[in-house]
Design brief:
By secondary structure, the chain is of the alpha+beta class.
């Protein structure tokens, strides 16, 4: 499947790999400059300027923030009111057809015919993309295997679960071997297990095949686990565009988890009391670390110096507790926005409301 020989390697603005796996020409995949889209009573995009490089990029914003409008403009399906945009080096205003040849799109809403099989539908979409019949059938089989539908490929789509339908939509976006895929809320309607499976598939689209991904979501936690870069928009304005590593930078706080013992049935409470008595600043993770794994049993210890590590280790040993982990913790993306004085927009968290520019992490 997806080999470098089948790619449009001459297309500007993308990253491609040689047969030996060498990566070359890492430049912008998507670029917008003062991009605006106005309707009579609504401004969907307001002077949006951003650049997206190869990798997995998350576009986050509440419903109505302008995510779907941006995707339509990037695909050349809706004209901008002002400003410019390019995808893979191609102008969205004049080269929409060429963009759609090179880009895969997974729509948010259900749009699948219930009375045909996944194989029939994906083959049809491959043929619509210009693939010959034999290549379309071969690519369809490979793509359905990749998304986990190979055993169910001949069943009518109407009998599929929500998760299976989402996988069909992902398959049709990938079947023509695009350089870039645009995924609009791909985890909508999925349970936690299905959500994790879909996020894993999205990540592998890039890591296994070198295809860049722009994925929209209103849930920051999903993007934190999946994306290399996160772009946040609200009311059509850019709030922040940063690498995930910048969002989740390390803090001067230790996350400490210990086991309970017969002598100390609540090991975390015993450790907290001892460390507080020694003059350290300690808090349970649940008080300021929502979302941290094991938050109910994890302590957050302010680490002003290296001596704090020794103090924690020695105290755990003196109490006879088992030390599960002691690590410098990282921000969660949601926490960054909560601590930056955000006013809510993005479902599980607020987003900052600074006008027309990026916000700073707390």
């Amino acid at each position: 499947m997806y080999t470098s020989s089948t790619r449009n390697n001459h297309v500007p603005g993308v990253r491609w790999r040689t047969a030996r796996g060498t990566t070359v020409m890492r430049v912008t995949v998507i670029a917008t400059e003062s991009l605006s889209k106005r309707y009579p009573r609504v401004t969907a995009l307001d002077r949006l300027t951003m650049q997206i490089e190869p990798g997995v990029t998350g576009l986050v914003g509440a419903n109505g923030a302008g995510k779907s409008t941006l995707i339509k403009i990037l695909l050349g399906l809706s004209p901008a009111s002002e400003g410019t945009a390019s995808v893979l080096g191609l102008d969205v205003a004049t080269e929409g057809g060429a963009i759609r040849e090179r880009v895969g799109y997974m729509p948010e809403h259900d749009c699948l015919p219930p009375d045909v099989s996944a194989t029939e539908f994906v083959v049809h979409m491959a043929r619509m993309s210009g693939l010959p019949a034999s290549a379309a059938r071969e690519r369809t089989a490979d793509t359905l295997r990749h998304v986990g539908l190979y055993e169910e490929r001949y069943r009518p789509i109407g009998g599929y679960s929500t998760g299976m339908k989402q996988r069909v939509k992902l398959a049709q976006a990938l079947v023509h071997d695009p350089r870039l895929v645009l995924l609009d809320e791909p985890t909508n309607g999925l349970d936690p297990v299905g959500r994790d499976d879909m996020l894993g598939l999205i990540r592998r689209v890039h890591t296994d095949f070198g295809i860049s991904v722009l994925v929209t979501s209103h849930l920051l936690g999903e993007l934190e686990r999946t994306c290399d870069h996160v772009v946040v928009i609200d009311g059509g304005k850019l709030l922040r565009s940063s690498s995930t590593a910048d969002f989740t930078q390390e803090t001067a706080t230790l996350a400490v988890e210990v086991t309970d013992t017969d002598a100390h049935p609540d090991g975390a409470a015993a450790l907290r009391a001892a460390l507080t008595g020694a003059g350290l600043t300690v808090a349970p993770a649940g008080a300021g670390g929502e979302g941290l794994p094991g938050a109910g049993h994890v302590l957050l210890v302010e680490a002003g110096s290296d001596s704090v590590y020794d103090a924690v280790r020695d105290t755990v040993a003196e109490l006879g507790l088992g030390l599960v982990r002691m690590e410098q913790r990282r921000h969660h993306i949601a926490e960054v926005f909560q601590t930056s004085g955000a006013a809510g927009t993005t479902g599980t968290t607020g987003t900052a409301t600074e006008k027309g520019g990026s916000t700073d992490a707390a």
